[in-house]
Amino acid sequence: MTDNWISGCRNGVNAWECDENNHLNVRFYMTRLAQTMGFVAHALEVPAGCALSPATHHIRYRRELNTGDMADFRTRVIEVRDDSVVLHHELHCAGEIATSFISIDRQIDQASGAPVAWSARQRELMAQFAGDLPERDAPRSVAFEEPRRPLDLGEARARGLVEVYRGMVQPWDCDVSGRMATEQVMGRFSDGVGNLFAHMGLGVAELLESRRGSVVVENRLTYNDMPGPGELIVSHSQVVEFLGKTMRFSHGMYNAATGRRIAASEVIVAILDHDSRRAVALSDAERASVEQRLTPLD
Questions:
Q1: Which positions, given as ranges, span the membrane (predicted)?
Q2: Deepest of 152, 209, 210, 248, by most Cβ within 10 A of its Cβ?
Q3: Would you say 211 and 268 are in contact if contact means Cβ atoms under 8 Å apart?
Q4: How far apart, in whole angstroms, are the C-alpha atoms of residue 8 and residue 62?
Q5: Are 38 and 172 in the same domain?
Q6: Residue 49: enclosing H or E segment and its boundaries?
Q7: Residues 296 and 255 in one domain
Q8: How far apart are CA 163 and CA 82, in angstroms?
Q9: With bands split at pLDDT 50, 70 and 90, how would you rate the model's confidence at 2?
């Protein structure tokens, strides 16, 4: 193993990237990761006409990023598989790890989407950037790879999952492949989660009035069939588990016309006190309201 890293995106946090919690919104972490992957593809000599396509992202958020913070990514290789690679990414700010990521990425032909085998040269390059995943960045409350069979849209509706988002993919939502960018998947889940909170009896406006908000602690995103411009999408969500100061949510994004699953997310969410910037417990009444709406996973 080596201690060599691939240097990725390096920039600052803009005010317009921050949300009602006054910190960097989750979608813009994905923007920076996508930019980092361009440097990874270059370092691994991905051939012309091919691309690294994400299958899974596991994310652990360690500290907030605020307007003006300067942050930079670095990446190394954890495992090389027959048709994919497991990568470990760290986002650093002010000498600390702000966020850690583990991803599974496949090398594909951009025209057909078919997998492309690693060359001997690429395997040599990946060995130069190989390292071990430190325990501090390992998954904690959310498994790295999806352990359950995915639901289609009909099954999600039949089980009574809450529709939290409905919209259409625009051309500017897509990346260089012409398909929906991963930051937009995260963004749609983020935009719709307020409807899940309303279903639980915790309105976003009421939380903000009490100087509280919701924040993501840990997340796994799985990508299945990314849509292109003009495709209609819906997201359905459920509250899976109440864990004291945190809750487990499950989200699914679907093609509204075909019912096929586009992506999914399993996420640990905490309630953030805006003054102390720490996670806080719900009141007894709020907890009772949430527990009435739990829908455990199979």
A1: none
A2: 248
A3: no
A4: 19
A5: no
A6: none
A7: yes
A8: 37
A9: low
Q: Diameter of the chain by CA atoms?
A: 60
The per-residue b/e assignment along 247-262, b for 16 or more CB within 10 angstroms, e otherwise, is bbbbbbbbbeeeeebb
Length of the chain: 298
Token pair listed for 139:
């998954």
* Pairing verdict, β 50-61 and 6-12: unpaired
Contact by Cβ (8 Å): 6, 43: yes
The residue behind tokens 């317009």 is 16
290 and 283 in contact (C-beta within 8 Å)? no
* 3-state secondary structure at position 133: coil
Residue range of the domain that includes 229: 146-298
How large is the C-alpha radius of gyration of the chain? 19
Residue 139 has pLDDT above 90, yes or no: yes
Res. 275: pLDDT tops 90:
yes
Residues 91 and 29 sit within 8 Å (Cβ to Cβ) = yes
pLDDT at 1 over 60: no
